[in-house]
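Why should sequence recovery work at all? Because a backbone constrains its sequence more than one might expect. Tight turns favour small or flexible residues, buried strands favour hydrophobic ones, and helices have their own preferences. The token representation captures these environments compactly. In the example below, the structure is given first.
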């Protein structure tokens, strides 16, 4: 694997972790109705983490795709 492939794999791992956190928080909210400033701050942090992980993963995949596409004869 190249360095780009490692970066994409690492970004995919972060995206999976962020997704797991988001799903876990949604399950917690479905079972128990948390409220308050602390829960809202944690929700915002999880949303920001997921967004950054998703954007990073997509950007790295696009850059890798463009590089492999431009390397073709």
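From this structural description, the recovered sequence reads:
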């Amino acid at each position: 694997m190249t360095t780009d492939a490692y970066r994409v794999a690492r970004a995919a791992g972060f995206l999976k972790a962020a997704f797991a956190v988001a799903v876990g928080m949604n399950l917690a909210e479905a079972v128990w109705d948390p409220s308050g400033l602390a829960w809202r701050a944690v929700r915002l942090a999880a949303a920001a983490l997921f967004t950054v992980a998703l954007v990073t993963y997509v950007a790295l995949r696009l850059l890798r795709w463009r590089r492999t596409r431009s390397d073709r004869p």
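A few observations help interpret the result. The chain is about 90% helix and 0% strand.
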